Amino acid sequence: MTAKISELIVEANEGVTTLRLNRPQRRHALSLSLLQELEESLQKIAQDHSVRVVVIASDGPVFSSGHDLGEMQGCSEEEYQKLFSTCARVMQLVRNLPQPVIARVQGFATAAGCQLVAACDLAVASDQAQFATPGVKIGLFCTTPMVPLVRNVAPKIAMEMLLTGKPISAEKALAAGLVNAVVPVDQLDDAVKEYTSAIVASSRQTLAIGKQEFYAQLNMDESHAYDQAVNVMTKNVLQHDAQEGMSAFLEKRTPQWEE
To answer: Which InterPro entries does UniProt cross-reference here (predicted)?
Structure first.
């Protein structure tokens, strides 16, 4: 009997955990089983203080083609609800994870694959990457991918992608705010490492506080955002790592983080 190959490869190296989508024969489509593996892995990572930053990656010409249409055809309402609900939980886990999450996008990211990129905190793309929400072409509006997409890019850009289904280039995605950097494909890993190295050098505790507050204040008016930020920063500065960081700066030494 042939053992089932995992649809998600988990690689850990010096504080960086890479979640590598592993369905090359299906263009790394987000099957229900792959989404469930992602959900389980992200839940474990959230509790693992040795993980400082997460990278979501894949190999080949496609980052992720979105949901697996072969799997989706002819399902019941309950099955569709389960698939889309699981996907929504995964995207929110990425957003709510204490650790920063970086998408490493080497190729096409379409539909729920584009959604996954938009859900990540940072995204680094190769100059060969393209992004699309092409559901309209098969009669299925990319409603769930729309949620993080419109929280990353201007409404007009999001609507262009959603209404036409046409892909945008990596450079346009950069200008629109969907990705942070675009580099030649042979420099992609180095570009990702620049981000992971900077993040790993910082306090996990501090990054978790900051990431949570960043998203919490986005939908607040300025006055309420400041009220909350003052309270969060006050609690932050009382933490060990903030006190240690200030002392290390004044003493001109490398800080020793508690986390």
So the answer is: ClpP/crotonase-like_dom_sf (IPR029045), Enoyl-CoA_hydra/iso (IPR001753), Enoyl-CoA_hydra_C (IPR014748), Mitochondrial_ECH-domain (IPR052377)
